[in-house]
Amino acid sequence: MNWNYIERKIIRKLRLGGLCYKVLDLLQGEDKVTNYNPKELEEYVSSIHQDTGGSCLCKNTIEEPSCDLQIIVPVYNVKQYLRECIDSILDQETEYTYHVVIVNDGSTDGSREILEEYSKDKRITIIDKKNGGLSSARNEALKKIYGRYIAFVDSDDRMPHGAIQTLMSVAIKDDADLVRGGYSYFRANGKIIDNKYKDERVSPFNTAGFAWGMVYKNKIWRNICFPHGYWYEDTNCFIVSLLSNTAYTISSIVYEYRLNDQGITHIGIGNKKSVDSFYVTRRILKNIEELGKIANQDLYECMLRQMVTNFIRIVDLGNARLDKAIFLLSCDIIESYFPKMQSKTAFGKQMEEIIRNRDFKHFRLNSLYRW
User: Fold this and answer.
1) CATH number of the domain that 244 lies in?
2) Residue 201 forms beta bridges with which residues?
3) What kind and span of H or E run contains 180?
4) How many C-beta neighbours within 10 Å does residue 266 have?
5) pTM here?
6) What is the pLDDT of residues 86-127, one digit of tens each?
7) What three-state secondary structure class fits 307?
8) Which of 2, 126, 245, 356 has an alpha carbon within 20 to 30 A of 267's alpha carbon?
9) Where in the sequence is the domain holding 236, given as residue range(s)?
10) In Å, what is the CA distance from 276 to each residue of 136, 193, 240, 331?
């Protein structure tokens, strides 16, 4: 049982984070690192888990649009949920044309037999490939883009009625690069928790987080894909945001996400592959540089927050040396890619001081108990 994880859950549930931070701040001594060897840190992190992931950069073919929306659904061993997912898409009533690309990623549980039931529907194309993971499946469908917009739906999730109409009406009306809608979390017992946005134009970075629950203008995916071999592949949302100009959020619920105990959120706790969170963030920044894109203020603010996200994912390994190594390497990365930028938020300014002083104690306290 991971007590570190359970402790944080209890503290957040009871809203005791601020109190815990103040108490621990008084009890713990300073831990500012003034001398370290980045190469040795890198070697140590690699000894725990190596960086074997791939680039987000590629070349996809964008054809003359034959439909308004191309929906990509990766499938791997989801027999019990698959019909519900596909039917939720095919039952959409909308004035906009759409086509569903379903990628069977080497399923062995009978999912392929279910897909065969839908093979005669002209709105569906089925692609079969060897198992390669979620990124690989999505990327297979992205190789040939023929929708004016693109959306991603995971095969154990659902689209509520009216989702396509609601998203596309805003996208077409405002010629938006990105439109993100609200979403719900649900379990098998039907319990639902809604997460809504405001109806407004926003920075593209305000839509970042998950690949699903939104529509993207096709041009965004011309030269990018999902980084193969990593967990947390949706971190490529930072590249997506940087390549976008106009973005909107809408208050309507357009996606229903199934809470699954076999998802990365759960199986990643205490798993060495959670180090991918650090690796994929580093890869994204390198890819942005390779694209020739200039890092902007929004990206900088997001990366300061991403440092905390990465730490939260990794800390449950219970390896203090690893925690500190990744913190120090992350500080170096932030200063390397954003040498002259200054945060405009209270959160960011605190992070800047922590990074400047290599103050691991306060980074850890703030990550676990305050932010």
Assistant:
1) 3.90.550.10
2) 248
3) strand 178-186
4) 11
5) 0.89
6) 999 999 999 999 999 999 999 999 999 999 999 999 999 999
7) helix
8) 126
9) 61-264
10) 16, 28, 19, 17
